[in-house]
Amino acid sequence: MNRAEFRFYEELNDFLPPERRRVSFEHPFFGNPAVKDTVEALGVPHSEVDLILVNGESVSFSHHLKDGDRVAVYPVFESFDLFGLTRLRERPLRKPSFVVDVHLGKLARYLRLFGFDSVYRNDLEDEEIIRIAEEQKRIILTRDLGILKNGRVTHGYWLRSLGPQDQLDELFERLELAHCARPFTRCVHCNGVLEPREKGAILDLLPPATRECYDEFAQCASCAQIYWKGSHYGALRALIDRYAVTLERAG
Hints:
Helix content is 26%, strand content 19%. The chain folds into three domains: 2-75, Ubiquitin-like (UB roll), CATH 3.10.20.30; 98-180; 194-250, no CATH class. By secondary structure, the protein is an alpha/beta fold. α2 (105-113) packs across α5. It has nine helices and twelve strands. It has helices spanning 35-41, 105-113, 126-136, 145-148, 164-174, 199-202, 208-213, 233-242, 247-250, and strands spanning 2-8, 25-29, 49-54, 57-58, 70-75, 98-100, 118-119, 139-142, 156-158, 194-197, 217-220, 226-227. It is elongated. The longest helix has 11 residues, at 126-136.
């Protein structure tokens, strides 16, 4: 029986039992398994990991453990440059786009409100979510650890929070979303891009009261949904202001 000493850092501790959080612990193993397999066996999805040091040297997921190794595992660094070290995934996505799993519909609407390209359908199977993430270079957002342990997943985030508003808070903090938010640029219903519309061009599509009271409009290029600054605008703007995202910066 071989043994290695492991230490997980920052939010990776969320995946560990309490007695293993923020401390070094010994882990027994047979043979010389790949460090990726051992990390996931300990409960941490590989998509949450961006740096592994074995005996002080950065290694890839395929590195094989040996008896007596000291292993330090670090989370995805969206805001730090790891130049010169062995990153365990591609460079972070600076213009993040998402594919959101079926249990996070309200979060998807929030993300679209802030202008983030977010694929969501309530009938998406795990395999299709993974395929979309692969083909379109999207970050998977989920509370299902199983999907993030799939070897094809390179960009994924496991949400710790349960409520949609708390999940949005978590993403803005963890992925530093404020600098790339573009509020009111996407349709919250279908994720299509919103385009300005002259009032006269859509006059026949507007309710009578809206025709009288409003002059600025946008329309979804995909589903043709029309938007204006109606009764909900104040609450939506307050939500945007909460994250220090200004419409001027959003452009």
